[in-house]
Amino acid sequence: MLLNAGQSQLLVIDLQTKLAPAIDLTDEVERAAIWLLQVAGLCQVPALATEHYPKGLGHSLPSILEWLTPDAVLEKIHFSAWREAHIQQRLTESGRRQVVVIGTETHVCVLQTVMDLLTAGYQVFVVTDAVGSRTAENKHLGLNRMQQAGAVLVSREMVAFEWLERAGTELFRQISKGWIR
Predict the structure, then answer these.
(1) Separation in Å, CA 50 to CA 4, 11, 86, 157
(2) How many CA atoms lie within 13 A of 53 on its CB side?
(3) Per DSSP, which regions of 39-97 are E strands?
(4) What is the 3-state composition of the chain as percent helix, strand, coil, each rounded to the nearest 5?
């Protein structure tokens, strides 16, 4: 099962200002997320981001907001984004059945969202280098559990090159030359 740009949507879970400093390898997760948001934009893959209780955890990181439209950032209170009716509606309305999931925390909000998306019949791809938890052990446990439930674990480059499908295009040259910061 390969990703297809025309069937994919990117879901950024809770990359927020007050949570990010507590995440293990947070800079790497943020860089991977920004890169994927840029690639998604170039490949015309819609992206949504969630903010879990922003009064307490702050809003999305400015570097993430730079690549999203204001209406693509959705507040939530449930750990699973799917349990919020307005987020479920946005994901469903797209008509796209593949969801690429990134964000934090791997073993809490990412995990619960992925489990609900799988139950709802979506093909779910979790980008291992663009998710994080406060500890490496919790990230590892969360990834294992999602994979056992049927989520596909991928790297950001796997996502990008599956969305691209082939070399020799201007889009391929832009992404492969690394001009994306």
Answers:
(1) 23, 8, 11, 23
(2) 9
(3) 47-52, 73-76
(4) 50, 20, 30
Catalytic one of 43, 76, 116, 129 = 76
Question: Is position 14 annotated as part of the catalytic site?
Answer: yes
pTM over 0.90: yes
Which one is catalytic: 43, 109, 129, 139?
109
The rounded distance, in Å, linking the Cα atoms of 77 and 86 is 12
Q: Is 139 a catalytic residue?
A: no
Q: How far apart are CA 11 and CA 87, in angstroms?
A: 10
71 classed as catalytic? no
Q: Could you tell me which residues come within 8 angstroms of residue 107 by beta carbon, excluding any fewer than 6 positions away?
A: 133, 138, 139, 141, 142, 145
Sign of CA dihedral 69, 74, 102, 84: negative
Q: Which of 14, 116, 129, 139 is catalytic?
A: 14
One pLDDT digit (tens) per residue for the chain, 181 residues: 899 999 999 999 999 999 999 999 999 999 999 999 999 999 999 999 999 999 999 999 999 999 999 999 999 999 999 999 999 999 999 999 999 999 999 999 999 999 999 999 999 999 999 999 999 999 999 999 999 999 999 999 999 999 998 888 887 877 777 655 4
